[in-house]
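Structure first, sequence second, as always.
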């Protein structure tokens, strides 16, 4: 009987040891999958950040071009309005109307560019919020892993 009890105790100890190893391996797998997901999220975030920076640079360049074109058109319009030529007044009015139309079109394009800029800022804000949520989820997962490792050790 004593022999059977010793054998039983040894088997229980082996079983407990195997269960602990299994739990440790499961925690390692969880940590590896968590770090892999974190790496993928980081790579995706970097990609999105590069794309956003590219769009912002393109937008800034377009805005500069629009402002330059607007200044040129305003100068031309001012010159036409100041000119006191002896030419046909209808020709002058046609030029003035043409410049005014170009200026109106440019202002419309500027408004559109401003709307694009606002949209980019909204996207950036949404990306930041999503990143913060992901960081919180990762922190929570890490805390859960730590808690579960503490409970398995006890």
């Amino acid at each position: 009987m004593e022999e059977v009890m010793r054998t039983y105790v040894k088997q229980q100890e082996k079983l407990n040891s195997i269960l602990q190893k299994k739990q440790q391996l499961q925690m390692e797998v969880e940590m590896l999958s968590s770090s892999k997901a974190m790496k993928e999220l980081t790579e995706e975030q970097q990609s999105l950040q590069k794309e956003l920076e590219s769009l912002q640079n393109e937008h800034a360049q377009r805005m500069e071009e629009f402002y330059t074109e607007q200044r040129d058109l305003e100068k031309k319009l001012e010159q036409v309005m100041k000119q006191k030529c002896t030419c046909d007044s209808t020709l002058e009015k046609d030029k003035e109307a043409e410049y005014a139309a170009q200026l109106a079109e440019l202002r419309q394009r500027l408004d559109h560019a401003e709307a694009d800029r606002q949209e980019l800022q909204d996207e950036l804000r949404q990306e930041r919020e999503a990143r913060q949520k992901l960081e919180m989820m990762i922190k929570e997962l890490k805390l859960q892993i730590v808690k579960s490792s503490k409970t398995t050790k006890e």
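Margin note: Residues 43 and 49 are 10 Å apart (CA to CA).
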